[in-house]
Design a protein that fits this description.
25 helices; about 5% strand; mainly alpha
Length: about 575
C-alpha cells in the first residue's frame, strides 16, 4: 500500500498543468518582471562607470587546479566521495515514505503532488522561486526513492558550484572543507528534506561566480548573470537579502579603506552612484524586495510563520545555533586579526573572503535578532537557517589558517562534534514510528472494507494550534495512502471556540481539504470501536484518565501506544 510507482501516469500533461500552476498562481511573476526592468534600466544607465570601474581587488586572484600527480588532492577527493556516500546512506536509511516528517505529511506536499507548486507570495512568505523545480518533479514521480535521488543530485550540483567558486583555496584543502561541510549537522541532518536551502547554495554560488567574472573582465553579460542569480536567491529564501546586504556593506567599507571613495562622495548622491555603480545595482535589487515585503507581509507579531518559528528565549537560540555561531566567531576573529595586520596596506581583506564572511555574519545576526528557530517537532536540532554562514565561515578558515597542524586540529574538532550531533539527530528521527502505526492501521482495513475506521488521536503535549496541525497532517497522509477506504480522525483538541473560525474551517474543508484529508471531528472521549493512538510523551491528567478506561494496548512502539476502545 505504501509502494508508490516510480513514475506517474500522463507525465507530459502533468508537467504542463503543474508548471502552469507555478507560473500563474498569486501574480508573483509581474512583480519580478518589474524588478528585472528596474535592474536592466539601472545597468544600462550606469554602463560606462560599470565598465570603467576597478573591481580587481574584490576577489582573490589565484586559481588552484586539481593536480593528478598530487597525493594530497586525491586524498581530499577521497574524503569528499566518502562524505557524499555517508550522506546518501543517511538519506536512504531514514523513513522512505511520506511519514518521514510532518512536512511531507502536510497539506503543502499533498497539494503540490496533485496540482503543482503554489508559490509563497502572500502575507506569510515572499519566496515565489522556492521549490520551482518541484512542479516538474512531482509531475514525473511521487516515489520517495526517486525524490530523494533527485535531492542527492541537487546536493551534488551544490557541491560542484562550491568547488568552482572557492577555486582560490588549494585543492586538497577545498575538498576537505567540502567533505567536512557535508558531514556537519547543519547540512547532513537536512539532506533528505525538500527545503530551498540547497537551491540558494546553487543560486548564491552562481551569482558570485558571475560577479567575479565581471570584476575581472568588466563585461556586462557577467554582471547580468550576477544580478539574475542574486534575484533568484533572494526570492527563493528571504535570508539571502541579509547576505547580499552584508556583501555590499563590506564592499563599501573596503572602498573607503582603499580610498577609492571618500566620505565627501556621499554628499552628492549622483557622484556616489557613479563611484559605486555595482553596489547601487545590488541595492536596487535588495530595495525592490523590501518594498514588496512591506506591501505584503504584516508585522512579525501578526505573521503566522514568525509565530510558529520564533522563541523568546535568546539564550536557548544561541545554544541552538552554538556550532554555527562558534565557527563564525573564530572566522571573524581571524578576519579582525588580518585587518589589524594589514592596516597600512590597500590589500586589506575587508572584502574578498572577508566580504563573504560579512554576508554570513549578517544572516546570523538577523536570525538571532529575529529569534527565529525551527520549532516543529521533526525539525528539533536542525539548524539549517545558518547553512550559508557555515559555508563561508568554513571557507574563510580553510583559506586563512596556514599551518596544516592547526587546520587538521580544527577539522578534527569539527568532525568529532558533527559525528556526535549527527548520531543524536539520527536517533531522534521519528518517521519510522509513524510508518509503523500506519502499517498497523493498514492491517485493519481488510476487516473494515464497508465500514469506517475511527482513529482517536492524542499527539504529544503542546499548544492547541500545534495539536490541530498534527491532526491534519495525519489525516492527509492517511488519505493519500488509504483512499478510498473510509477513515475519520477524532481528537479532544480539535475544538475551536470561535464560531466564525469554525465556520471558516468548515468552508475550507468542504471546498479544498476534502480532496486531501479525511474528516476531522472533535470528541472528548473515545467511543466503542475507536482505535486510540496516544503519543507516549503525553502524560497529562486528561490523557491518563482516558488511558485508565482503555484495555491493554494492542500495539506499541517507541513513540505510540494503540488501544482498541470497547
Amino acid at each position: 500500500m505504501f509502494d508508490i510507482p516510480l513514475f506517474q501516469e500522463n507525465i507530459l500533461e502533468n508537467i504542463l498543468e503543474f508548471n502552469l500552476t507555478t507560473l500563474a498562481s498569486r501574480l508573483w511573476l509581474p512583480w519580478l518582471l518589474i524588478v528585472a526592468v528596474f535592474l536592466a534600466v539601472s545597468v544600462w544607465l550606469l554602463r560606462r562607470p560599470l565598465k570603467e570601474g576597478n573591481w580587481g581587488n574584490l576577489f582573490y586572484a589565484g586559481t588552484c587546479k586539481f593536480d593528478r600527480r598530487s597525493i594530497k588532492d586525491w586524498l581530499g577527493l577521497s574524503f569528499l566521495v566518502a562524505a557524499f556516500t555517508i550522506t546518501g546512506v543517511y538519506v536512504f536509511s531514514l523513513e522512505n515514505s511520506l511519514f518521514e516528517s510532518f512536512d511531507t505529511m502536510g497539506f503543502g506536499t499533498m497539494r503540490n503532488m496533485k496540482e503543482g507548486v503554489v508559490p509563497n507570495f502572500d502575507t506569510m512568505r515572499i519566496t515565489p522561486l522556492a521549490f520551482w523545480d518541484l512542479s516538474t518533479l512531482y509531475a514525473v514521480t511521487h516515489n520517495i526513492y526517486m525524490i530523494k535521488s533527485y535531492l542527492l543530485l541537487q546536493l551534488a550540483l551544490a557541491v560542484v558550484c562550491l568547488y568552482c567558486f572557492f577555486d582560490y583555496i588549494p585543492v586538497a584543502r577545498r575538498l576537505l572543507m567540502l567533505a567536512i561541510l557535508l558531514l556537519t549537522p547543519t547540512m547532513l541532518q537536512t539532506a533528505q528534506i525538500i527545503y530551498p536551502d540547497r537551491e540558494i547554495i546553487i543560486a548564491v554560488m552562481l551569482s558570485l561566480i558571475c560577479l567575479r567574472r565581471f570584476c575581472r573582465s568588466q563585461k556586462l553579460r557577467w554582471l547580468t548573470g550576477f544580478l539574475f542569480f542574486m534575484i533568484v536567491a533572494i526570492y527563493t529564501k528571504e535570508t539571502c537579502v541579509l547576505f547580499y546586504f552584508g556583501l555590499v556593506t563590506a564592499s563599501v567599507l573596503y572602498r573607503i579603506w582603499s580610498e577609492d571613495i571618500t566620505i565627501q562622495n556621499f554628499i552628492h548622491p549622483l557622484r556616489t552612484i557613479g563611484k559605486m555603480p555595482l553596489e547601487f545595482c545590488v541595492g536596487i535589487g535588495l530595495f525592490s524586495f523590501l518594498v514588496i515585503y512591506s506591501l505584503f507581509i504584516p508585522s512579525t507579531e501578526e505573521n503566522i510563520y514568525f509565530s510558529f518559528n520564533r522563541s523568546d528565549n535568546l539564550c536557548a537560540i544561541i545554544r541552538y545555533y552554538g556550532f554555527e555561531l562558534s565557527l563564525l566567531t573564530v572566522a571573524a576573529g581571524i578576519l579582525l586579526w588580518q585587518m589589524v595586520r594589514h592596516s597600512d596596506s590597500k590589500i586589506n581583506p575587508m572584502f574578498r573572503g572577508g566580504g563573504l564572511l560579512c554576508g554570513g555574519i549578517s544572516i546570523a545576526a538577523g536570525i538571532v535578532m529575529l529569534r527565529l528557530i525551527p520549532t516543529s517537532w521533526h525539525l528539533a536540532g536542525k539548524s539549517y537557517y545558518l547553512l550559508l554562514p557555515t559555508i563561508f565561515a568554513l571557507a574563510y578558515l580553510f583559506q586563512n589558517i596556514r599551518r596544516p597542524v592547526i587546520l587538521w586540529g580544527i577539522s578534527a574538532v569539527i568532525l568529532a562534534y558533527s559525528v556526535r550531533a549527527d548520531i543524536i539527530g539520527y536517533e531522534n528521527e521519528e518517521g519510522h514510528y509513524y510508518r509503523q502505526v500506519a502499517d498497523f492501521m493498514a492491517q485493519q482495513i481488510p476487516q473494515n472494507k464497508r465500514g469506517t475506521i475511527n482513529i482517536f488521536l492524542i499527539e504529544r503535549p503542546s499548544e492547541e494550534e500545534r495539536q490541530i496541525w498534527a491532526l491534519e497532517t495525519w489525516s492527509m497522509a492517511y488519505h493519500y495512502y488509504f483512499y478510498p477506504y473510509l477513515m475519520v480522525f477524532k481528537t479532544q483538541f480539535y475544538d475551536l471556540k470561535d464560531s466564525e473560525q469554525m465556520l471558516y474551517n468548515k468552508i475550507v474543508y468542504n471546498k479544498i481539504l476534502y480532496r486531501y484529508a479525511y474528516p476531522m471531528i472533535s470528541q472528548s472521549r473515545p467511543q466503542a470501536g475507536d482505535w486510540v493512538v496516544i503519543h507516549k510523551q503525553n502524560r497529562e491528567a486528561e490523557t491518563l484518565e482516558i488511558i485508565k478506561n482503555l484495555p491493554q494496548p494492542v500495539y506499541e512502539n517507541k513513540l505510540f501506544a494503540i488501544y482498541h476502545a470497547e
